[in-house]
Amino acid sequence: MEFDLLAIWGHRGILIEGVLTTLLISVISIPIAIILGAGICLLRISPKRTMRWPAVAYIELMRNIPLLILIFMVFYALPFYGIRISGFTTGIICLSAYGAAYFAEIFRGGVEAVPKGQFEASRALGLKYSFYMRRVIFPQLYSYVFPPGTNIALTMIKESSLLSMITVTELTYAASDINGRTFTPVETFATIALIYWGISTLFLKLAGSTQARLGAHDSNSAITLR
Amino acid sequence: MTTALEDRPVMIKIHNMNKWYGDFHVLKGVSLDVRKGERIVICGPSGSGKSTLIRCINRLEEHKDGDILVDGTPLTDDTKNIDQIRSEVGMCFQQFNLFPHLTILENCLLAPMSVRKMSHNAATDIAMKYLEKVKIPDQADKYPNQLSGGQQQRVAIARALCMQPQVMLFDEPTSALDPEMIGEVLEAMEELAREGMTMICVTHEMGFARKVADRIVFMDKGQIVEINDPGSFFDTPKEMRTKTFLTQVLQH
Predict the structure, then answer these.
(1) Could you tell me if A115 and A161 are in contact, meaning their C-beta atoms sit under 8 angstroms apart?
(2) Which residues pair with B217 in a beta bridge?
(3) Are the beta carbons of B101 and A131 separated by less than 8 Å?
(4) Residue of B79, B101, B103, B126 for testing the chain A interface, max A β-carbons within 10 Å
């Protein structure tokens, strides 16, 4: 069997649109998931039970149902209640909502990893809860949350392929489209896999250098600077 | 030392206070009055509840029964009241607990600016004054991890003093230090004592206790066993348990 890359080259327009859509969805969803996750984390660790409970319920729900089902519910079930959302927007909502639950748990893990003495010193100085969370605890988090956070963001990029099921013209949809036209599954899906791999690698490089740059001000690296 | 201690107002009043961790009765009917300007050293075997006792004074731990009054204000669940008391009661910890992502100066500025609403300039003046007092003004722009343990603990003292508290609590401030650094921290504490600060120190430094304390409180198994002046405490202790403890700590 020959390896017919020309067939794919002929449909490069579809591919490029697919890549751009995948990138666009990721670039929008990941920051939303991080911010939403931080908010849910604050609720989750609140001393008040009434604030913790909704956060726990949300996180449990998101972690225990498949993302694809969430996507189907928003895209196919909500219209029965008169709510119609485009595939693209559905993708943003579902991926953000899904990622936020994981980011919330990562942030919570980070807060718990900060030594207890930091909280006690803050309280002993008379600092208010919201103030010391913002100025003392959260700035110490990122060395704990950056590596697992990078993983979740990467998962979100790859899981966006599920949106091909609701006709969002992202990378995986583009692949099915090209395969339907050319009937070259080996070449098409190998190419797509390679592109996902490329995007992921670039993303990891970017995350790595960002962490290194932030780390220049980190207390832990101050030891090595000494 | 113009007025006799007995004539000075009571700064901290602990009356018949009890605390439990689950079923474990950590503090059993503890009563102690600390007068303004008084230096108290609390000692006792580990697990005797001495750290828990001073942590109750700024409500890092909640007492379950009895009363604690700081400068006349009773400690309750009222958040406003707790924040108010915490800003008047400074504390130093065994592990220093400096904020690692902030410079030495920033560590000292955070609370005065946020709680006391001081301007950056005013807070900086005060911070530098206290950093000079603990003899590390030249380290102001460094990060905590770049300092030795003794220096970090002195910064922690300065950071607490920047709030200009009425009382200072010390929770085993030298226990995590290398032996050669203990002296510099005790010196800073002695300086503070000379200036008339009300101090409650949990420590195993018996030399410091003899030199600085007005009264020494000996605790064992959650109870105050003996309260005595340093001379009598070391030379003619009243209680058997105190004697046993002293022979154990003083033979080293």
Answers:
(1) no
(2) B42, B227
(3) no
(4) B101
Identify the sign of the CA torsion B5, B8, B11, B14: positive
Cα(B115)–Cα(B112) distance, rounded to whole angstroms?
6
What confidence tens digit (pLDDT) does each residue in B154-196 have?
A: 999 999 999 999 999 999 999 999 999 999 999 999 999 999 9
Which residue reads 């490069």 in tokens?
A12
Report pLDDT for A1.
56
First to last CA, chain A: 61
**Tens digit of pLDDT for each residue in A64-85?**
999 999 999 999 999 999 999 9
Q: Any idea what the Cα angle at residue B141 is, between residues B137 and B145, rounded to 5°?
A: 100
Q: Do the strands B215-220 and B39-43 form a parallel or antiparallel pair, or are they unpaired? A: parallel
Q: From chain B, pick out residues whose CB is under 8 angstroms from the CB of A140.
A: 99-101
Of A123, A140, A218, the CB nearest to B86: A123
User: What is the rounded distance in angstroms from the CA atom of residue A114 to the CA atom of residue A138?
Assistant: 9
Burial class of residue B134 in the structure, from the number of CB atoms within 10 Å of its CB (0-12 exposed, 13-18 middle, 19+ buried): buried
- For A197, the token pair is 């791999």
B99 φ, ψ to 5°?
-85, 110
pLDDT tens column, B43-102:
999 889 999 999 999 999 999 899 999 998 899 888 778 888 998 999 999 999 999 999
Would you call B145 an interface residue with chain A, using a CB distance cutoff of 8 Å?
Answer: yes
Using the Cα atoms of residue B101, residue B107, residue B113 and residue B118 in order, give the sign of their dihedral: negative
Contact A101, A40 (CB under 8 A): yes
- Which amino acid, residue B120? H
DSSP H or E run through A192: helix A185-215
Question: Tokens representing A181?
Answer: 């036209």
